[in-house]
Amino acid sequence: MADTHPAPTATPGRTERAAALVQRHGALAVLLLGAAVATGAFPSFGTLDNTHNIAIQSSFLAIVALGMTFVIISGGIDLSVGSVFALGGVLAAYASRWGLLPALLLPLAVCGLIGAVNGVLVARTRMPAFIVTLAGLLGARGLLLAITHEGSDTFLVPKGSAFATLGQGTLVGFGYPVYIALAVFGLGGLVLRRTRTGQSLFAVGGSEDAASLMGLPVARIKITVYLLSGLLAGLAGALNAARLSSGVTILGVGLELDAIAAVVIGGTLLVGGAGTLSGTLCGVLLLGVIQNVINQIGSLNSSYQSVVSGAFLIVVVVAQTYLGRTQRIR
Amino acid sequence: MSPIAELVGVSKRFPGVLALDNVSITLARGEVHALVGENGAGKSTLIKLLTGVYTPDAGEIRYAGRPVSFRRPLDAQAAGISTIYQEVNLLPRMSVASNLYLGREPRGRFGLIDHRRMYADAAALLSQYGIDVDVRAPLQSLGLGAQQMVALARAVSVDARVVIMDEPTSSLEPREVDTLFRVVRDLRGQGVAIMYVSHRLDELYRICDRVTVLRDGRVVHTGPLAELDRLRLVSLMLGRDVAEVRRHGLTRFSESHTAAAGEPVLRVRDLTRRHVLSGVSFDVRPGEVTGLGGLLGSGRSETAKAIVGALPVERGEVTVAGRRLRRLSPAAAIRAGISLLPEDRKAEGIIPELSVRENIVLAAMPRLSRVGVVSRAQQDRVVDLFMKRLRIKAASPDQKVSELSGGNQQKVLLARWLCLNPKVLLLDEPTRGIDVGAKAEVQQLIDDLAQEGLAVVLISSDLEELVEGADRIVVLHAGAVVDELAGDDVSESHLMAAVAHDGEAPE
Question: In what residue span(s) does the ABC transporter domain sit (chain B) (predicted)?
């Protein structure tokens, strides 16, 4: 732009930058605020024990939501993760009799395969992700019911086995799954920000046409994210089974919606092309804190958790839309 | 000059159309080769064959002396063929640097992207193009012209041996066009072959060495551009004879409109939005074409958007036929009889997946329906009327709009607004990116509409079009009205002087 003819849009204004900042760190601010209020209101909230509790309870959703973040940034959606999570748990419990490695590899292999099939269908046949992964949701749930004979068979994880320890062991108070969740988030963040695949993800979600005209391997990237989402849902399911000592068939119903909610609350755009893992982590923790607080109140029916979470979701989406508009006006 | 890329007897067929019919074209190293033709002549198809988006049905593509078959854009890019498109095809939310280096980011240890180096490289690269911006900022914070330069920088920096430019200047200011041409000449000096597609004849003569003219999927002429005068070039593109073109002139506007008289039908007062518009006021009388002039970013499109309520303003009022609009909103504007044909027809106008019929009647739906039920018969009547009147070339009213050429899409949009029976019609770059033939038709139409008593506001960065089309020109600069030209003052030289405003001579 020539400096003699300053175009009004040449530099981002203060409002625009503030809007971008809120969009990026809004979930963190709300989380800190919520935690502070809860600590003041409920003496039992701020205790170390309760913190451990929230952390372990959030770790499974966090792992699932990580995969969901990747999928949503790429402009897609994965509805199958709740069923895949449950399937992963049952397969892990089933295979745990053979040791730690089979207990992890079997669910990862099967869940990864489901994710890959989702990805291939979305990327190659250009079917809407919503439909493909809805089919995945139904298929995985059906498979699960078939394996467990409608849930009448329950597979138990051998007591004291290495696999059980993976789910139940603790290090300085926090359960192992918490560390695993943090590790995958660290790794995921690195992939997202510092690798070509990660950056291409934003491009594909931002504009598929532009990405393919830039010569990016759009189909490969899409298949990768759905594969990853399946793998992570399977991993979370396996860890959960290890923690509960058994594969529980009825788990994971509606988990995909919690994951989507966490991702969106974390500031990732549902239309794709923008988002952060730290936001998703905050979103997951925020849902965890809400649940925890409602449990603390005690007198309140725990079903109200969904009402509060839902309200948060609406607030966030409205704020996003509004912020997106301030940023775009030119 | 040795050829780097060649199409030999290439044909490409789509359902119902032979888009390219036995076309041969040679791109030599170190030449700027103009590719011209009306929309629908096959230019886009040709480009897409060269860039691996389509594969030919017959014939051969040769690159660096060998037959090649590009199966996807990546293959063509890897071979050294880069393209910049008419509409900027980048990622608005990603950083400027990412847009430059996506897919080939500099990597450091463990194969991780080295952001520091990427930012430094990006800044250095852009400075060669005379662009000094924060490369970490999202691309959308840049003006359209700067975005186009980023697209160009990306295309060229991949060690391109062939660069295809599809209407690269359609959103650039004159100054930016100069920078672009400097870069093009540099590239030519380095032996890069450039295929230059543009509807702006001036530019072709400034920059191109040879020209290939396509018409109806066939090559009708190829040779040095200097040997071909403008009139002859236009007649080749149109397939009309030179004398006829001379008689009608290059634009289709009549001299002026005598109908312009009486009270203004549109009064705009003090439209203000911080950083964008400051106190824009003007009147438009029925039967008159009022031009809005100014450079890119001067607030022309913003003014139009503000009038129809698509851009919120802090202050200002709009009066239509004596009645002041209480609130500026698109619905209120339509009710009051103002229609805007937006600048970016891809994003703000057509709905590509819908049919011609649906696109036309979209805005008129409330009028064509009774208690929510749309009368099909009435729809058909309206659609038929406008398809005939605007000469929209479509197989049927049920054809998808995305399958039409740019010019015909523009006419569909125009039809959408005309069937509302507006009192005031705002046209933002109505002929951008459409071919010469359709352009003339659209210009003719604007003329007719004004004759019939419609008040027309015309925004165009084509000076010739603005001067010949408008009876009066309101000149904007940095969001404010700086001059108003009427009568004999409506000339290119006066307009240039007014646009340059602060004493700075236009380049």
Answer: 5-241, 245-503
As annotated, the residues of chain B forming the CATH 3.40.50.300 domain(s) are 3-93+138-248, 251-337+423-507
Cβ pair A75, A208 in contact under 8 A: yes
**Which residue from B105, B154, B502 is facing A196, i.e. has the nearest CB?**
B105
pLDDT category of residue B16 using cuts at 50, 70 and 90: low
Helix, strand or coil for residue B337?
coil
Using the Cα atoms of residue A4, residue A9, residue A12 and residue A15 in order, give the sign of their dihedral: positive
Beta strands in A180-301 (DSSP E): none
Question: Over B150-200, what HEC string results?
Answer: HHHHHHHHCCCCEEEEECCCCCCCHHHHHHHHHHHHHHHHCCCEEEEECCC
CA distance linking residue A269 with residue A272, whole number of Å: 5
CA distance B372 to chain A (A): 30
> What is the fold, at CATH topology level, of the domain defined by B251-337+423-507?
Rossmann fold (3.40.50)
Q: pLDDT by residue (tens digit) across B431-485? A: 876 777 778 888 888 888 888 888 999 998 777 788 888 999 998 887 889 888 8
Q: Which of A133, A88, A94, A132 is nearest to A110 (CA)?
A: A88
Across the interface, which of B73, B91, B478 has its CB nearest the CB of A5? B478
The answer for residues whose C-beta is within 8 angstroms of residue A17's C-beta and 6 or more apart is: none
CA B420/CA B341 separation, integer angstroms: 13
Q: Which residue numbers of A have CB closer than 8 Å to B's CBs?
A: 1-2, 4-13, 16, 190, 193-196, 199-200, 202-203, 206-207, 209-217, 273-274, 327-329
Degrees to nearest 5, angle at CA B376 with B372 and B378: 95
Count of other CB atoms within 10 angstroms of residue B200: 15
Contact A8 B103 (CB under 8 A): no
Q: Domain residues of chain A, as ranges? A: 22-36+45-328
The Cα of A72 is separated from the nearest Cα of chain B by a number of Å equal to 15
Give the one of B103, B105, B504 whose C-beta lies nearest to A215's C-beta.
B103
Bridge partners (DSSP) of residue B68 are B61
Q: What is the DSSP string of B250-314?
A: SS---S--TT--SS-SEEEEEEEETTTEEEEEEEE-TT-EEEEE--TTSSHHHHHHHHTTSS--S
- Interchain pair B479, A327: CB under 8 A: no
Return the closest-CA partner of residue B92 out of A95, A236, A328, A231: A328
The model's pLDDT over A190-243, given as tens digits with 9 standing for 90+, comes to: 999 999 999 999 999 999 988 887 878 899 999 999 999 999 999 999 999 999
Which of the residues A17, A192, A213 would you substitute to probe the B interface, choosing the one with the greatest number of B C-beta atoms within 10 Å? A213
Total Cβ atoms within 10 A of residue A193: 15
Asked if residue A256 has pLDDT above 90, the reply is yes
Is the CB of B478 less than 8 angstroms away from the CB of A329?
no
DSSP H or E run through B61: strand B58-63
**CATH of the domain spanning B3-93+138-248:** 3.40.50.300
Determine which of B93, B131, B135, B298 to mutate to test the interface with A (most A C-beta atoms within 10 Å). Answer: B93
Answer whether A7 sits within 8 Å of B140, measured CB to CB.
no
How far apart CA B266 and CA B290 sit, in angstroms, is: 11
Q: Nearest by CB to A210, which of B74, B90, B137?
A: B90
- Residue B131 Cα, gap to closest chain A Cα (Å): 7
Nearest CA to B23 out of B1, B40, B41 is that of B41
Question: Which of B105, B141, B276, B504 would best serve as a mutation to test chain A binding (most A beta carbons within 10 A)?
Answer: B141
pLDDT of A6 higher than 50: no
Pair of tokens at residue A165: 């320890």
Q: Please state, in angstroms and rounded to a whole number, the distance separating the CA atoms of residues B55 and B67.
A: 13
Q: For the packed helices A176-194 and A277-297, what is the interaxial angle rounded to 10 degrees?
A: 150
